[in-house]
Amino acid sequence: MSERVAAAAARIASSLAAAGIEQSGREARLLLGQALGLDRAALLTGQDRELTRDEESRLAALVARRVRREPLSRIVGHREFWSLEFALGPGTLDPRPDSETLVQGVLDTLPDRRAAFRVLDLGTGSGCLLLALLSELPAAWGVGVDISPEALHTARANARALGMADRAGFVAGDWGQALTGHFDAILINPPYIPGGEIGSLAPEVALFDPRMALDGGPDGLGSLRRLAPDLARLLASGGVAAVEIGAGQAQPAGVILAGSGMAVAPAIRDLAGVGRCLLARLK
Predict the structure, then answer these.
(1) Do 16 and 10 contact (CB within 8 A), yes or no?
(2) From the centroid of its chain, how far is CA 279?
(3) Separation of alpha carbons 91 and 152, rounded Å
(4) Band of the pLDDT at 146, cuts 50, 70, 90?
(5) Are 135 and 84 in contact, with CB atoms under 8 Å apart?
(6) Which residues are CB-contacts of 68 (< 8 A; sequence separation ≥ 6)?
(7) Alpha carbon of 254 to those of 95, 168, 270: distances in Å?
């Protein structure tokens, strides 16, 4: 007799918990839904449904990936960010709620969200920061820059899926070096993990996020030092740059930005109380 949905959910939750995965029950249900092609409501009403052999095979493969600590978002192929759904790829960082602090930080500085703002996202990855901000600014347009062709492919696909392909362009580049012009808002989530600490991160991050999107050099601030002059050069008068930082980096990161001629506001804290975003303007 084939396994029933309820029994499969309990068994998978136990396996995930043994692998050190929090919220194992929730993730078990999501993996079941992915394997069976069912939403949460259908799973709840189909607890006594027997799995077919094909479904059991698909489910086993998904569970094996999660037990190896591949993030659930990468297994299902997408992540929700700013209430929008973003496809992920091997060349993109997995967006996290902490980064929404940058989007809100910029929005809070804008006097009129209907204006035709020019937005730049350096190291765009999946395009989540740029597209989340554009979703709140109907007359704005923006450019996302990334050195990874894989990331740019994913970002363009996300812009099309979200109906913003006509307002968002994506170009290959090394930070802002090849750009000219001025932007009203610049978003940057640079690599800021000290290289020697990456191995101590959760396996979901250390093993599956692109290392080039994590490794900020010996002190985590190497990328910021490289891109800070571009920020000052590309930021429009009256514009704002939002920079994501790691815990404890507000003071040294602020010094770097100030050294490029920018005035830096106190760090904006994320939901965990960590200083996560620095807002900088031209002096």
Answers:
(1) no
(2) 19
(3) 9
(4) very high
(5) yes
(6) none
(7) 24, 29, 17
CA dist., res. 160 & res. 226, Å (int): 31
**Does the pLDDT value for residue 61 go beyond 90?**
yes
Whether residue 1 is predicted with pLDDT greater than 80 in this model: the reply is no
Alpha carbons within 13 angstroms on the beta-carbon side of residue 158 total 33
**Cα 123 to Cα 176: distance, rounded to the nearest angstrom:** 9
pLDDT of residue 46: 78
Question: Token pair 């090849």 is at which residue?
Answer: 178
Reported for 35-41, long-range contacts at CB under 8 A and 24+ positions apart, including other chains, are 35/59, 35/62, 36/5
Question: Where is 62: in which H helix or E strand?
Answer: helix 53-67
CA-to-CA distance for 60 and 35, rounded, in angstroms?
9
* Cβ atoms < 10 Å from Cβ of 175: 21
Q: Which residues of the chain form beta strands (DSSP E)?
A: 78-81, 84-87, 118-122, 141-146, 168-172, 183-188, 235-244, 262-264, 268-269, 275-282
Q: For residues 128 and 89, is the Cβ–Cβ distance under 8 A?
A: no
Q: How many residues does the chain have?
A: 283
**Number of Cβ atoms within 10 Å of the Cβ of 123:** 25
Tokens representing residue 140 in the block: 């704005």
Q: Which residue has the tokens 């993730």?
A: 27
